[in-house]
Specification:
Elements (H helix, E strand, L loop, with lengths): L1 E7 L4 E5 L4 E6 L19 E8 L4 E7 L5 E5 L7 E6 L3 E6 L8 H12 L5 E5 L7 H17 L2 E4 L8 H8 L3 E5 L6 H8 L25 E6 L2 E5 L21 H4 L19 H8 L4 H16 L2
Parallel strand pairs: 3-5, 8-9, 8-11, 9-10, 11-13
Antiparallel strand pairs: 1-2, 1-4, 2-3, 4-5, 6-7, 12-13
Helix pairs in contact: 1-7
């Protein structure tokens, strides 16, 4: 039977058939990996073929995996040169951002957006906890809003305390499979509890000592928002290493750079120290944000080191 992976715990998976029944599934023996070097052969959002091993216990065996339309992947935290699949077959992705407790860095935002651009997955930035914003926070938010909205990204603001922005967020989730991601402690679980009260995900206070969120989501899991919409909740990500993107193609995944690539003096311009570089000229003129260019340089150097 054909099924959709709703949850991955590393060794066991939750798969749903076309009638809506769920099965606890595992892989058959040694599973044939696709060409991608990953630590997890199957991700939430994957379509698979499975057979039923035990009708009484609803146990199934995953036989094959269908080719993915797209996926979000990051560098494995434990296995060098391998990636870890976050989710697959997405219509869009949403990164939950907070300005402090915990702070989401610009570098983290840009790495996430680059990963989405690599597979042309539309991305949304959700600035959460806006009920806590000071006047200085409001200024920082407006600066970031101007940068990312001018590039073409959708930027939303939300608060689970005042419920501001939740209706707007809901409209963006309709008729789509959406990945919800971000650091631990940014409020993903609280947002989902408001959107889907029946699931009641565990939420956790921020650790005062480290100013980091405590992990509340252990495994990636998909939820039905309505009959035509799904949300994939992911464990909080501390760091997001870009995976399987060559340094020579990196500029293609910055939309504001992509538009200017034909203007460089050299066709193989790295946009670092070459003369006649249209990207550097745009940064000097202010039409490309300095923070975005600095993210480009940082990712480029990381990728160049691993070549």
């Amino acid at each position: 039977m054909k099924g959709l992976i709703y949850k991955s715990t590393g060794s066991w998976y939750q798969v749903r058939d076309d009638k809506g029944y769920f099965y606890k599934a595992r892989l058959r023996g040694k599973f044939k990996q696709q060409e991608l070097k990953v630590t997890n052969p199957i991700a939430v959002g994957d379509w698979v073929d499975f057979s039923i091993e035990s009708e009484t216990d609803s146990i199934a065996i995953i036989e094959t995996i269908y080719p993915r339309e797209n996926y979000i992947i990051r560098k494995s935290a434990h296995k060098t040169a391998h990636g870890h699949l976050i989710a697959s077959n997405l219509d869009q992705s949403a990164l939950v951002v907070t300005l402090h407790t915990p702070r989401t860095s610009i570098g983290f935002i840009d790495r996430f957006l680059v990963s989405c651009e690599a597979f042309r997955i539309p991305a949304i930035l959700i600035f959460n906890k806006i009920d806590l914003y000071t006047s200085e926070d409001q200024y920082i938010y407006q600066t970031l809003y101007d940068i990312y909205s001018s590039i073409g990204y959708t930027v939303l603001t939300t608060s689970t305390v005042t419920e501001e922005g939740l209706d707007t967020l809901s409209t963006f989730l309709q008729d789509k499979t959406t990945l919800l991601s971000g650091h631990s402690g940014v409020g993903k679980s609280s947002l989902l509890n408001n959107l889907l009260p029946e699931i009641m995900l565990r939420t956790s206070e921020i650790s005062d000592y480290s100013n980091k969120g405590k992990h509340t989501t252990t495994f990636a899991e998909m939820f039905d928002y309505n009959p035509t919409s799904r949300i994939i909740d992911t464990p909080g990500i501390k760091e997001l290493g870009v995976f399987d993107i060559g340094s020579d193609e990196l500029s293609h995944y910055f939309p504001e750079m992509r538009k200017k690539l034909g203007g460089c003096k050299f066709h193989n311009c790295r946009h670092i120290n070459e003369p006649g570089c249209s990207i550097k000229q745009a940064v000097e003129k202010g039409s490309i944000a300095l923070s975005r260019y600095e993210s480009y340089i940082s990712i480029y150097q990381e990728e160049d080191t691993h070549r």
